[in-house]
Amino acid sequence: MALISRDDVAHVARLARLDLTEAELDQFAGQLAAVLEHAADVAALDTAGVPPTAHPFELVNVLRDDVAGPCLDRDEVLAMAPAAEDGRFRVPRILGEAP
Amino acid sequence: MTEWEMVVGLEVHCELATATKLFCACPNAFGDEPNTNVCPVCLGLPGSLPVLNRHAVELAMRVGLALHCSVEPSIFHRKNYFYPDMPKDYQISQYDEPLNVGGRLDLPDGTRVGVTRAHLEEDTGKTTHVGGGGGRIHGADHSLVDYNRAGVPLVEIVSEPDIRSAEQAKAYVNELRAILVAIGASDARMEEGSLRIDANVSMRRAGAEVYGTRAEIKNLNSVRSLGRALEYEVRRQVGRLEAGEAVVQETRHWNEDEGRTSSMRSKEEAYDYRYFPEPDLVALAPSAEWLAGVRAVLPVLPSERRVDLARVAGVAETDAAVAAVVQQGLDGLVTAAVGAGADGRLALNRAANELAHATPPDAGAFAKVLRMEADGRLTATQAKGVLAELVSAGGDPEAIAAAKGFEALEGDVVAGAVDAAIAAHPGEWERYAGGEAKLAGFFVGKVMAATAGKADGKAVTALLRERLAGR
Ligand SMILES: [Zn+2]
Questions:
Q1: Does residue B445 share a domain with residue B368?
Q2: pTM confidence score
Q3: In a shared domain, residues B306 and B283
Q4: Domain closes at, from B296, B331, B349
Q5: Residue B263 CB: number of other CB atoms within 10 A?
Q6: How close does chain B come to A59, measured CA to CA in Å?
Q7: Which domain range does residue B341 map to?
Q8: Distance, CA A53 to ligand 1 centroid (Å)?
């Protein structure tokens, strides 16, 4: 049983704005299925009584003080961008409001 | 057919008053030159790592405690989307394990709105659309982005769908703003975007248990816009429902100039944000000691101040003057004046109506004016005049009253003026006696003119009734 369909891969690729060829869809469907099979091995373990965790570390509350530090030079920053105007990043026409 | 009932839940985004951003040391400042408060972290440059701002967490905890939430262990998630307002292509937010859950907000009118959650997240950059009309997206040629705001700490406060009117929605936002300012969490300036509101609105028949389909309204930039947008949306949704059409679940944009909402996306694509735990941040788990420390710095909240003030003034907590006085921060003055012998109700009303937006006068002097009014040494009008002078120039109330020539008239002087006015206007007097009650104002005016405004309006009205009864 395939853990991930070709359509699933196409959907995820669309969400990630990746333009995959037909051959790549087949290739990644196969590779991702292997990854998911590995995850399924873990899922087969009895984890009753093991609390879910979002992180491998025991560490909590890693914080910094609210003290301002240096920022980057604007000219240097904007020089990295494909286009700039009026001290701001210039981006292509946006099709809708922010989600 | 039963009436329609409006069901509203609000999402309020509030920028926290920290010195720096949520995950980096860039200044959190409004109005600076574009892209001057940016660094590798908030620009999403490769290899940079976020570190959480302790003060932002504490301010968010203050918000939670002030809203009677339970402060819980929480984690951060990445909310993935492609839009140039976030250079990382994701926003770090809290998703299924937020910092604050299950609170409430008590409004001045005695109603209560549940608070589902209040979570921490980072703000996005600011986009400006160029080439379209009035900076709008429609017809724009390209957009410009300023990342100074990207990464600024926000608390998103989500209410339960407990709000039933535009007035209640406005009262909720006003009360929330007062709390946020009181606890030092935010300056809550809507005109600068430090407080932003989205409204979820649906309609149902009064008494129905099930909610109707809701629309989410964005771009509400003032409390007034919120009220107008809700009133418009009610008319729109009821119009559709009564015409047998369905309300579409969608996001709608409020246009302040046109006074209407419009659908924001033609092809409604359900967003799939692919939330997953932020691997670069560890969990937040406030200890009891840490929480106690945060709780200790919380000031007395507006709702508690209203309870205290109502008790001091001897009126109901839901009295409109109580809310007004607390909102203007004059409750301390009223309490002190009552302590100095002023009447509670009078102190409350004079503070609410005569001292709004003014520099508060000395409590002792304020109390003295109120005592002079209560003793009948000043009429209501004269007392207001003395208060105005006290606020603008200061001084001793007795001296101000004397300088203005405000000396209480002997009772027989007023009575004489009343009799003279009746004698001079027999026609009006007959009509007044015949039931034209509004002519009382005419005679009060005549007596005021004759006494240079020194007579007490209430005393004149009482004398007129006496003369009427004695005819
Ligand atoms: Zn930064």
A1: no
A2: 0.82
A3: no
A4: B296
A5: 12
A6: 7
A7: 302-395
A8: 28
Nearest CB partner across the interface for A90, out of B20, B142, B277: B142
Of A17, A57, A63, the CB nearest to B54: A63
Last residue of a domain, one of B296, B320, B335: B296
User: Lowest-pLDDT range, A87-96, B32-41, B56-65, B450-459?
Assistant: B450-459
* Residues linked to residue B104 through DSSP beta bridges, in sequence order: B114
Residues of chain A contacting residue B75, judged by C-beta atoms under 8 Å apart: 54-55
- The reported pLDDT for the residue numbered B268 is 42
What does B360-389 look like in DSSP terms, one character per residue? PPPHHHHHHHHHHHHTTSS-HHHHHHHHHH
* Helix (H/G/I), strand (E/B), else coil: B177: helix
Contact A69 B26 (CB under 8 A): yes
CA–centroid distance, residue B44 to ligand 1 (Å): 9
Q: B253-297, pLDDT tens digit by residue? A: 999 999 999 987 644 455 688 899 999 999 999 999 999 999 999
In a domain, B361, yes or no: yes
pLDDT single digits (tens) B96-121: 999 999 999 999 999 999 999 999 99
**Which pLDDT belongs to residue B290?**
97
Residue of B230, B242, B28, B67 lying closest to B147 (CA atoms)? B28
- Closest alpha carbon to B4 in B206, B265, B161, B140: B206
**Residue B2: its pLDDT value, please?**
73
Would residue B150 count as lying in a domain? yes
Say how far apart CA A59 and CA B221 lie, in whole Å: 40
What ipTM is given for this predicted complex?
0.86
Chain A and chain B share a number of CB contacts under 8 A equal to 142
Shortest distance between the Cα of B265 and any Cα of chain A, in A, equals 7
pLDDT tens digits, B137-151: 667 788 999 999 999
**How many structural domains comprise chain B?**
3
CA of A69 to the centre of ligand 1 (A): 9
The rounded percent of chain B whose pLDDT value lies above 70 is: 96
| B38, B52, B271 member nearest A71 (Cβ) | B38
Residue B400 lies in a domain: no
